Amino acid sequence: MKAIQKVRQLGSQWETQDPFLFCAYHLDQYPKGNDQMGPDASLTGRNIGMDFNGKDGWNMYHGRTVPGFPAHAHKGFETITIVERGLADHSDSLGAAGRFGEGDVQWMTAGKGVQHSEMFPLLNTEEENPLLLFQLWLNLPKASKTVPAHYKMLWHEDIPVVTHLDEEDREIRVKVIAGTYEGTRALSPAPDSWAAKKENGVEVWLVTLAPNATWSVPTAAAGLNRTLYFYEGHEIATEGYKIPKGHGLDLVPTEEIIIQNGDQKGFFLFIQGKPIGEPVAKQGPFVMNTYQEINDAITEYRQTEFGGWPWPSHDHTHDKKRGRFAIHADGTEEIRD
């Protein structure tokens, strides 16, 4: 295969290439919500606090009442959280907060350290509450690992979407979260991100192909790492092979590759970037360059808790009546609905 370096089978955590660290994939068919914004269903048989088994098609994760991830620390990298379906409630140790989803993206630079929680409130009490969420971990170079923590919202109304047709008038839709597609530039990422410098070639796109559509993936400069994840659909044909959904393709950036979609609508996540090329030391929520730095980070967290936790509970959720909003550490507030 001239244009494909490797084919990877996907699970709930997708392997990535430098400058990315990994991608978490959450697809949960949550039932109707109850008065506490949790599932209106029995939790019997679940390992509450550590529920990742997908019983009945959904998980509580580390949540006990509301699904999600109560307060936990990060340091030395960034998270790009793409919530295509459902909602996420963010709270952090800087006093920042927000509710986002249904196509929104949160770009958070952990930098020198932050605690945050990510809970998934089930607001709909009449119908199911499906969740589709991707969280990319994007590394920071050594020079940026101690920048101040920061987060930025990319609201779905503002994220550019490019729609065009193939030669048979079948639709190709590209949501440009980072980088550029066909001359359309994404919104600016967080200011200290590796993606903030154009020469680093960071691209994050969500691509949707109509049944039987043909898409030519744009080529790019040599030396960039790029992967196309086929996460929903039936199968695609490329390079003389048929590949079913649930696979990722590491691509050669300078080689043209044609993706022929199958007889169902196809959904893809495309990521690309110039490798940082530095040593990576990882332990849980900390990503540094050496394990001595990891030990120092753990000590710092034990001493400071990265600012402590200003919320009533570690699994804090926002008022059920609130729509999408963001409150930043400087007090700036954005209200979307």
UniProtKB/TrEMBL annotation:
Listed SUPFAM superfamilies: RmlC-like cupins (SSF51182)
Family annotation (Pfam families): Pirin (PF02678), Pirin_C (PF05726)
Organism domain of life: Bacteria
Domain Pirin N-terminal: 63-138
InterPro entries attached to this UniProt entry: Pirin, Pirin_C_dom, Pirin_N_dom, RmlC-like_jellyroll, RmlC_Cupin_sf
All copies of domain Pirin C-terminal, residue ranges: 207-307
The family this protein is said to belong to: Belongs to the pirin family.
Protein name as it appears in the record: Pirin family protein
Source species: Dokdonia ponticola
